[in-house]
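Researcher: Sit down with what I've pasted below and flag anything odd:
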Amino acid sequence: MDTLIFEIGLAVALVSMVGLLSAKLRFSVIPFYILVGMVVGPHAPHFGIIDLRFIESATFIDFMGRLGVLFLLFYLGLEFSIGRLIKSGKSIVVGGSFYVVINFLSGLLLGWMMGFPFKETMVICGIMTSSSTAIVAKVLVDLKRTANPETEIIMGMIMFDDLFIAFHISLLSGIVLSGATSWTGVLLTCLTALVFILLFIIVGRKVMPWVDKALDIRSSELFLLLVIASLFLVSGLSESLHVAEAIGALLIGLVLAESVHAKRIEQLVVPFRDLFGAIFFFSFGLSIDPTTLGGAVTVAVVGVLLTIIGNIVSGFFAGRASGISTKSSANIGFTLVSRGEFSIIMANIGKEGDLQPVLQSFAVLYVLILAVLGPLLTKESKRIYGLFQKATSWVRTRE
C-alpha cells in the first residue's frame, strides 16, 4: 500500500498541532517544530497505517525542508532589500560589528575549549553568531516594543548579522562543501562565491527595469511561476558554483526587493515560507536521535552561557555607542539572545560536509535552550536590570 501521501499529511498535522499549542502558550513555535520531529522518526512506534517513523516519506520531507530554507532566505531578502541595507547606516555598522565580533569570538573560544577541529569550529561560530530574526521580530511585536529607542538599533544589528551570516555560509561552503583540501583551493572557492554575489547584485540592479516589465502580468498563476522559477534557477546556479543554495535564494530576494512588484511577490510567497519553513524545522528534528543528545549537553550549556554573556556585552557597547541609556542597552542584549533558523542551517552544512555528528546534537540543544530563554529574558529584562542595579548598589554600600 502506498502511504506516501498519508505520511505527508500526518507530518503536516503534527506540525499544525504543535503550532496551535505554541500559539496558545504565546511562545516561539520553532522549538515545538523541532521537538515534535525528534519525538517521531525512525525510533518511533507504528500502528498499521499510522507510521510515525516516516520511512517512506523521509526523502520527500527532507526535500520540503530544503525548500523551506530557500523560501525563508528568499523572504528575508525581500524584507531587507539592497537599498534599505545601504540606508540603515550607523546602527548596522557599529552595533552589528560589536555583535558579530563578540559572538564569533565566543564560538572560537567554545571550539578551542572543547577541542574541535577547524571546520567544526567554523560551523560552531556560525551557529553561535546567528540570531533568530523570526523570534526577535515576534518578541518585539508581542511585547509592544517596536517604538522603543533601542528597537532601531536591534533591527540594524540583525540586518548586519544576516549579512555576515550570508558571507559565512559562503565561506563554509568553500571550506566544508567544496571538497577543497588546501588553503589555496578554499580561498579560490570563497573568491568565486564573493565575485558571484557582487556580480549578481550589480547586474540584478541594472536589469531591474526589464525584470519589472517581465513581471508586469495580470495572471497570478504566471506571475508566481516566474518568481518560483527565478528562485530555483538562481539557487541551483549558486550551488553549482559552491555557493550555498540558501545564499542564491537570499540574493534573488534582495534583487527582487527593488522591484515595483515586491509587495505582490511577498504576498504570494508568505504561504510557501510558512508551510515549507515549518517542515524544515520538523525535518531537522526527524534527523536527530534524542538518545544521542547527552554527549552534547556540556557543549550546549557552555555555549548558551557564552552567548548570553556575549550578547549582554555587545548590547551594552552598541547601545552606549548610539547614545541610549544603560537600561535600553540591556534590552538589546537580552532581545538578541534567541537562536533559530540560521543556526539550524549552519548545522545542516556541517551534516552535508560529513563533519562530527555532535554538531547536530549541539545545534538542537543550543537552539532549543535559547529559543526558550530568549523571549523570557526579553520579557523580564526590566526586572533583571533592576535586580542588577540593586546588587551593584549593595556592593558599593558594603565597600
